[in-house]
Amino acid sequence: MLVLGLETSCDETAAAILKDGDTLLSNIINDQIDIHSEYGGIVPELAGRSHNERVHRVIKESLQKADLQLRDIDLIAVTMGPGLIGSLLVGLNTAKGLSYGLRKPMIGVNHLEGHILAIYLQKKVKFPFIALVVSGGHTELYRVSGFGQYKLLGRTRDDAAGESFDKVGKMLGLPYPGGPAIEKLARNGNGNSHKFPRAHLEKGSLDFSFSGLKTSVRTFLNHRQQDSTITVTDEDISAGFQDAVLEVLVAKLIMACKREKLSRIVVTGGVASNGALREAVKKEAQCWGFESFFPDPIFCTDNAAMIACAGYYKFVRDPSSSSLFKELDAKASLSIE
């Protein structure tokens, strides 16, 4: 089975072709960093316009790389939510047009399910496991009992972890996106130069909160600007901020494993590309005898390969979930449960 995956939920226009659920023939990703960098964040209207300009080009590139024609495709999998509604509509309407024109079935995929199943592009992790989805728009913990079987254990109550990285990066005058820039600075910083707060919330909670941490960084930067005797550098602030985020992410992840009595962990989403997070999770997981798995960085950030993968398993599990010219609606908010 050849699956064409389409992803346009936020600011990546992506197309991929996956064979039989495990052989990736192409994975084309066209980001919009050049468009949004001058604003320090994503502008939804500009994102939607860019998708409209680029979506057919990335589909053509994915077919060329796979040495295939559109008529060879057996199934079209497309992100239907959650995400920016204007961006989602571009991919969804493109998929509908292809489905209608080719008379091939299409299937709608939850973006979060795509992230969770991205690991299956590399390794068939046994169910059940705990999944931490951590990105610019999401920070959520799930118990994954099987394909299509997801239980939400905890989520952010305000900013997503990746969003807080971008906002703190902007405060420091770093280029967008802020996550990679902060990670790079943090390598040369001393996280103990200034200890930022850790928001663990009420006892036993698996929820997250990063808005207070973000405010703490802003307050400290203002204080440093007014007091020339403070020698804490941008590198130190980056390290201290990153430590505060990672400490809470790892603690909640281990807590979820203990509570659910599970020993397998999957960390995915854009922030899972962060080397310090990967090392922190691996180290803590080993201490408890847990296994940890991470998709390659190319599959952590938004991509269409993960959508094709999730679409394939959804179709195999329930072929009736797809049909010719299926009426699907884009949903800015969409539960995975």
Walk me through this protein's architecture.
- With 337 residues, the chain is α/β, with parallel strands linked by helices.
- It has two domains: 2-117 and 300-324, Nucleotidyltransferase, domain 5; 123-294, ATPase, nucleotide binding domain (Nucleotidyltransferase, domain 5, 2-Layer Sandwich).
- It contains eleven helices and eleven strands.
- It has helices spanning 33-36, 44-66, 85-102, 111-117, 161-171, 178-186, 211-226, 234-260, 275-288, 297-300, 305-317, and strands at residues 2-7, 12-19, 23-31, 75-81, 105-110, 129-134, 139-146, 149-155, 264-268, 291-293, 323-324.
- Strands 3-2-1-4-5-11 form a six-stranded mixed sheet, with helices on both faces.
- The longest helix has 27 residues, at 234-260.
- It is globular and about 70 Å long.
- The mean pLDDT is 96.
Q: How do the helices and strands line up, and which of them pair or pack?
A:
Blueprint lengths: L1 E6 L4 E8 L3 E9 L1 H4 L7 H23 L8 E7 L3 H18 L2 E6 H7 L11 E6 L4 E8 L2 E7 L5 H11 L6 H9 L24 H16 L7 H27 L3 E5 L6 H14 L2 E3 L3 H4 L4 H13 L5 E2 L13
Parallel strand pairs: 1-4, 4-5, 6-9, 9-10
Antiparallel strand pairs: 1-2, 2-3, 5-11, 6-7, 7-8
Task: Please give a quick description of this structure.
The chain has 337 residues and is α/β, with parallel strands linked by helices.
- Structural class assignment: alpha/beta
CATH architecture of the largest domain: 2-Layer Sandwich
> How large is the count of helical segments?
11
User: What is the terminal-to-terminal distance?
Assistant: 27 Å
How much of the residues is beta strand, in percent? 15-25%
Under CATH at level 1, the class of the largest domain stands as Alpha Beta
> Uncertain spans, ≥5 residues at pLDDT below 50?
none
How would you state the average pLDDT, rounded? 96
